[in-house]
Amino acid sequence: xxxxxxxxxxxxxxxxxxxxxxxxxxxxxxxxxxxxxxxxxxxxxxxxxxxxxxxxxxxxxxxxxxxxxxxxxxxxxxxxxxxxxxxxxxxxxxxxxxxxxxxxxxxxxxxxxxxxxxxxxxxxxxxxxxxxxxxxxxxxxxxxxxxxxxxxxxxxxxxxxxxxxxxxxxxxxxxxxxxxxxxxxxxxxxxxxxxxxxxxxxxxxxxxxxxxxxxxxxxxxxxxxxxxxxxxxxxxxxxxxxxxxxxxxxxxxxxxxxxxxxxxxxxxxxxxxxxxxxxxxxxxxxxxxxxxxxxxxxxxxxxxxxxxxxxxxxx
Amino acid sequence: xxxxxxxxxxxxxxxxxxxxxxxxxxxxxxxxxxxxxxxxxxxxxxxxxxxxxxxxxxxxxxxxxxxxxxxxxxxxxxxxxxxxxxxxxxxxxxxxxxxxxxxxxxxxxxxxxxxxxxxxxxxxxxxxxxxxxxxxxxxxxxxxxxxxxxxxxxxxxxxxxxxxxxxxxxxxxxxxxxxxxxxxxxxxxxxxxxxxxxxxxxxxxxxxxxxxxxxxxxxxxxxxxxxxxxxxxxxxxxxxxxxxxxxxxxxxxxxxxxxxxxxxxxxxxxxxxxxxxxxxxxxxxxxxxxxxxxxxxxxxxxxxxxxxxxxxxxx
Lengths: 315, 315
Prior knowledge:
2 copies of one chain form a homodimer.
Chain A: E1 2-7, H1 21-40, E2 44-49, H2 52-64, H3 74-99, E3 106-109, E4 112-114, H4 120-123, E5 127-133, H5 135-143, E6 148-150, E7 156-160, E8 167-168, H6 171-179, E9 183-186, E10 192-196, E11 202-204, H7 211-221, E12 226-231, E13 237-238, E14 246-247, E15 250-252, H8 253-261, H9 270-282, E16 287-292, H10 296-300, E17 306-309
Parallel strand pairs in A: 1-2, 1-12, 2-9, 3-9, 4-10, 12-16, 15-17
Antiparallel strand pairs in A: 4-8, 5-7, 6-7, 10-11, 13-14, 16-17
Helix pairs in contact in A: 1-3, 2-3, 7-9, 8-9
């Protein structure tokens, strides 16, 4: 059985969201204990991951050091985080596997994700990233072509496009290595966003791709049986914050689409996770689950978390 | 025929060594014209590359922004450059190939290189990296555990270990993809330096691995027939700066070892290139050449550049 695990930012950063190097290492080391358990269990694992806090840090460095070193575009920052996070995952996973008596090769593939240059996000960017700045500083960056929004008392914040991912361009490399027995890390941060220009050339663009929507595409491309979206809660909830609040344990894609349509899930958070999970099962995947990291082994088998299948198998 | 091309920093940065994003893109686009020509010529190409100016820029960002964002260690900076440079190479190479009517998949493998924790470089670091700083600023960084040296009128400069590369840990992933028909980029910047701890765990270390010495190891690991070290001169020279100065066109490994022993080549520059080339041929490689980027196609066939073979075939 092949499983694609999408690791959320919480698996990569400290409890307070800190992305200091030692916090990242500790969080990834912990996360890889769970992933190793799954591999020992006989599952063929492909990994993808978020990169929000890390990209935020790189953007801040860009801004603070801009007078000394030329800033690099956002797509480059994404590529940078694929290198560092992937490297940490390989080291931590190999140790976690060795501790369980298993030797498996790991690999990290630098991955581009194609988006549409005409995606509405590029004309109306809405995704806030990085830190808040005073209006005067933000306006300097606006003059350099960036979009910043007045967010009230905390100051201004940059907003970028979050375009729909269309194709994981390097999925064949990921699949080739997975088929050869590697535990592969790919499409980190949703992949480096690129557009195909009229002449056919690829060009990086400044955008943030939702890593769960990219995970759906990657999972299908590498023919994963199960998509596991690992986050910081055990289940998706309906009726959030109301007396009727309850965890969703099993649902069909139709039921989950209904919840999406009635706005049960937060748009920047659980919404895209549910959307990605539903798309995966609709696209032919056997099962998608949304759950916390410590439950992923049970979740793969449909015994924990929010399980989405075409045929519900109520227990 | 499989060829490993090691691209020097000049293939990655502007004419003045500038590593501004648009300069890097332009330089890589130009370099990939030559690489594409080689691929069209029927050669199976694996690519590695330096990252000196890029790592220098990341270190400066780290320092300048240290009060705002936690700095990351040097090995992370190396991993970051593998992401960005690899991404640019893929985009540029695919365009250059398409312009020649060829469609080939490309892939970038995040690559670790094992070094010895007891390498003398760690107790006596000698490799200068990054920018010069006034003594007062350098001393703050010394208090944080870094080694900085007084370099006279230009100020202080950081020095790090440049340990001997022992093993390209992710070479099997690179070879797997190369065997599957990908043009693979790996071991960028010589690879991310890691040491194996007594318990078996891998740990990143702050060091700079010579990319040409790493290229030799990678070339052997992926069973390359030829190692091409692309630099900014057409030949290695003997008698540099003397009336007897002449380019070396063909030489045996024994002849080149002799030149190395008598100090014909600059230690931080042509020396390691010649050393890497000699090691590759001594290790069983058919041919190594050192030449400028525009001559690589001829060089692969032994018709240009400084050609090192076990059997000299004087023309």
